[in-house]
Amino acid sequence: MSPSPFWSPRVHGLVPYVPGEQPRLANLVKLNTNENPYPPSPRVAAAIQAAVQQGLQLYPDPDSTLLRQAVAAHHGLAADQVFVGNGSDEVLAHAFFAFFQQRGAPLLLPDVTYSFYQVYCGLYGIPMEVVPLADGLRVDVEALVAPAGVEVAGVVIANPNAPTGIGLPLASIERLLQMHPGRVVLVDEAYVDFGGENAVGLVAQYPNLLVVHTLSKSRALAGLRVGVAFGQSPLIDALERVKNSFNSYPLDRLAQAGATAAYEDRAYFDEKRAAVMHSREGLSLQLEDLGFEVLPSQANFVFARHPSHDAAGLAARLRERGVLVRHFRQPRIAQYLRISIGTPQQCDALLQALSEILR
Ligand code: PMP
Question: Does the keyword Ubl conjugation apply (predicted)?
């Protein structure tokens, strides 16, 4: 659509995030947006039904008190160290607003990471200092620890990183926190429950740490839109101020009830994330048998390239066979496919389609 004279100047420069395809067709094998292949805990639907009975004509609890208590209990924190928002995308947006804008210095981030970070920088006018990944598509911790001669407003990383799936050890996170004592280090742990090292336990020790989680992946609630941040109470208080300046009721009654139930069913959570990790190991080996190079993943997806087949072409041919995977045009990673871990049946369908294409 062409620009309109009604637009304010900042809107002209916005480059919005383009999410992976969300098809209406039901029978596709959907391995393109890192959803959980399993449904959420059955307790979630029961809690949502109970919330409907309580009455949707009433506003929800603006503070999401029960949910924050359940999340805090799960992680051994206090409720004032927990912030909840409408998906972790919204939590990240509030964090960028609260901690990184108008700092007179750029935000430090890897060049290959979750692309929404750059979108928020554009939205809020935050300058960026982008650090290339090191060999093997690993986050270059040393370059983030000591950026060559630049003052920075803060640091953002995804751990495990997206879309590579490669995780950093907690020692690297601690080094970042220690080397940037006066700035917020935001660690987006969207995928951490699939084998990564969780930094939530460092919150008590580091006033500059903000950890962001989502219920969209390991708790299978992408459709409910709930995200969480962990930090010491001054950081959480800043997020509350920003939140209440946008929408004081971001989480509706259904989301609060369903998300609380998901946190309370720890056994289901552990069972399903173990199933995903198990499938990931099997799928990685089978992709290697087909000639793919697969990066070591600690997430619910794998990032893989075939030395003799163009990734965009492979994605298109998979789509013709009803299998959706994600391809990124960014030059450094344009030879890779990001494949979400499906059910065993979905993984088999992917492998079957790939063996036909590569034959
Ligand atoms: N962070 C990362 C690294 C992600 O990949 C995603 C999902 N695309 C998100 C955050 C956002 O997840 P949600 O808004 O569903 O919580």
Answer: no
Q: Which of 51, 94, 59 is nearest to 224 (CA)?
A: 51
What's the pLDDT tens digit per position in 163-206?
A: 999 999 999 999 999 999 999 999 999 999 999 999 999 999 99
Q: Which of 306, 213, 161 is nearest to 325 (CA)?
A: 306
Q: Which atom of ligand 1 is nearest to the CA of 113?
A: 3
Whether ligand 1 lies within 6 angstroms of the CB of 314 is answered as no
Q: Does any ligand 1 atom lie closer than 6 A to the CB of residue 137?
A: no
**Three-state SS annotation for 251-302:** CCHHHHHHHHHHHHCHHHHHHHHHHHHHHHHHHHHHHHHCCCEECCCCCCEE
d(CA 162, CA 192): 11
Cross-strand bridge partners of residue 339: 302
**CA of residue 194 to ligand 1 center, whole Å:** 14
Instruction: Give me ligand 1 centre to Cα 355, in Å.
Output: 31
Distance between Cα 214 and ligand 1 center (Å):
7
| Terminal-to-terminal C-alpha distance of the chain | 42
Decide: 190 in ligand 1 pocket, CB within 6 A: yes
Domains and CATH numbers, the chain: 23-39+267-358 (3.90.1150.10), 42-264 (3.40.640.10)
Picking from 93, 43, 55, 72, the residue whose alpha carbon sits closest to that of residue 252 is: 55
Q: Are strands 209-214 and 227-230 parallel, antiparallel or unpaired?
A: antiparallel
Atom of ligand 1 nearest to the CA of 158: 3
Give ipTM to 2 decimals.
Answer: 0.99
Q: Are 218 and 193 in contact (CB under 8 A)?
A: yes
Cβ of 349 less than 6 Å from ligand 1? no
In this predicted model, what pLDDT tens digit does every residue of 341-358 receive, in sequence order? 999 999 999 999 999 999
